[in-house]
Design goal:
By secondary structure, the chain is α+β, with helices and mostly antiparallel strands. Helices cover 20% and strands 39% of the residues.
């Protein structure tokens, strides 16, 4: 072999070995301790110091500290910083990582996360549903506790609340009412946490209380009072109950307060974010309506009408357990009734000559074209406690008067004589009865336990037509009673039944 060729081969071999040695030495450099930054599970790169990144964020986001009056700003919730050992991957600067983060995910601050668990409820169609959970963010725990107290006192007077809380309620001697139990039905949890600054963070109890009551912090609609306006009129015309109006306008003590033209009032339909349950023990003296008996004297003209015996209301002392949810009565149970004074029946003699004759008496007033005027209607139940009046509640019209406290299975009476036109069941009304009074008016009786009449049957005023129950969409045992001009719901116009008494 040529000596020159041998020389080149040796040189090439030496160079090759040298290159292998150099390459091997470069691959196994000293390991580095770094931190890998993940945002929403995606790697953004490596940094040399976790602490440096946290301090850099705190420094760069001074405006957040000024805005919320906090001492420190933290990394986003969705950011994870994991220690990692690497040999050769490039390490980014703190600023480079910060620039990748700042416009993608919100930074966080110290605060509290409040969770209000939604309840299982039944809608107006009788279907069960679960309310959404509510998540609330505050800087201080005291902001929430103060807001809860303020919201509770929207439904219960401050005086009653304090007496209950301090266990200073006076014992009932003859009549009166005490709160036996007061609680929030929803499960509420409060947890200290880092909260994202892109969330609604409540810094004042006033703002949070407004949200807990109305479901929003937006300014409520205003109304300018007109001449002749009453609280009841303004509330009804704007789909509010009188109670909702008073809660939204705390300057008024009760529904009888006077309004003046030009006065600005707040119109706010409540949407409470939790259910406050109040359970009361109440003893009250209530009037007992007297019955009216009509006698027909066929020797007298039909225009003849004389009160033979004046009616006198009776008086009962009634002990009841009353449950309210967010200020609205949902159930009344009467536990004791003591008669203080018996009612005296009113007897009216009417002429029968020249007009309709009903054969000498009985409770038939109102049948056959008698105008449905005030005082002509009989009370449809054995008790007189009204758990929910006619009017709007939560922005929806409650088209009847709920009478409760009589007890399950107690008698329900025809308010006027007439013809039974409907005996049926519906998901919301439950078992119900409709009577045509043959004078343009119809009466409806809903949530019945029993129905004692049939369609087409003629009934007299005061006749038992059914029994009180809680069928259909009913939160407690009661009668839903309504009076209509025309057939109910199908072209008819509903009235406040209490205007007939």
């Amino acid at each position: 072999m040529d000596k020159k060729l041998i020389f080149y081969v040796l040189i090439s071999t030496i160079l090759s070995v040298g290159l292998l040695f150099i390459t091997h030495k470069t691959t196994f450099t000293e390991p580095q301790e770094t931190y890998r930054v993940y945002l929403k599970g995606k790697s953004l790169g490596l940094i040399s110091s976790k602490e440096d990144l946290e301090n850099y964020i705190d420094k760069e986001q001074a405006s957040i500290k000024d805005n919320y009056h906090v001492k420190k700003v933290y990394v986003p919730d969705e950011l994870d910083i994991i220690k990692e050992i690497t040999y050769h991957e490039k390490v980014l600067s703190t600023k480079e990582i910060y620039e990748k983060i700042k416009d993608i995910s919100p930074f966080t601050i110290d605060g509290y996360v409040i969770s209000i668990k939604g309840l299982k409820k039944t809608n107006s169609e009788g279907k069960e549903y679960k309310e959404d959970d509510r998540i609330i963010y505050t800087l201080k725990k005291s902001t929430f506790t103060s807001a809860i107290k303020s919201t509770v006192q929207s439904f219960i007077t401050k005086e009653k609340y304090n007496l209950y809380k301090e266990k200073k309620q006076e014992e009932i001697k003859e009549t009166g009412s005490i709160i036996e139990n007061l609680y929030i039905k929803n499960n509420i949890t409060i947890k200290e946490s880092k909260i994202p600054v892109d969330k609604t963070i409540y810094s004042t109890s006033e703002d949070l209380s407004k949200f807990l009551l109305f479901g929003t912090t937006e300014e409520q609609q205003k109304y300018t009072v007109q001449d002749g306006d009453t609280i009841e009129d303004v509330a009804f015309n704007n789909k509010m109950s009188k109670e909702e109006f008073l809660i939204a306008n705390t300057q008024f003590n009760d529904e009888n307060a006077l309004l003046y033209p030009g006065q600005l009032v707040t119109l706010g339909v409540m949407k409470p974010q939790f259910d406050l349950v109040e359970e009361d023990h109440t003893v009250s003296d209530v009037d007992v309506n007297y019955e009216t008996e009509t006698k027909i004297d066929n020797s007298k003209k039909s225009s003849y009408s004389v009160v033979e015996q004046a009616g006198v209301k009776g008086r009962n002392r009634v002990t009841q357990k009353i449950q309210k949810v967010n200020g609205e009565t949902t159930n009344i149970v009467t536990t004791k009734t003591e008669q203080l004074k018996a009612p005296v029946k009113e007897i009216i003699v009417k002429g029968g000559r020249g007009g309709n004759s009903y054969g000498g008496g009985g409770n038939v007033a109102g049948y056959g074209g008698v105008v449905a005027t005030k005082g002509e209607w009989g009370w449809p139940a054995t008790c007189s406690s009204i758990s929910s009046p006619f009017g709007y509640r939560w922005g929806v019209l409650h088209d009847g008067t709920d009478i409760a406290g009589c007890g399950y299975g107690s008698n329900i009476f025809a308010a006027q004589s007439g013809t039974v036109v409907k005996v049926s069941y519906k998901y919301d009304n439950g078992k119900y009865i409709i009577i045509n009074h043959n004078n343009g008016f119809y009466s409806l009786y809903a949530h019945l336990a029993g129905q004692n009449v049939r369609e087409g049957q003629t009934v007299n005023k005061g006749q038992v037509i059914g029994t009180m129950g809680r069928t259909g969409f009913a939160t407690g045992v009661h009668l839903h009673f309504s009076i209509w001009s025309g057939y109910p719901y199908y072209g008819g116009r509903v009235h406040n039944a209490m205007s007939f008494y």
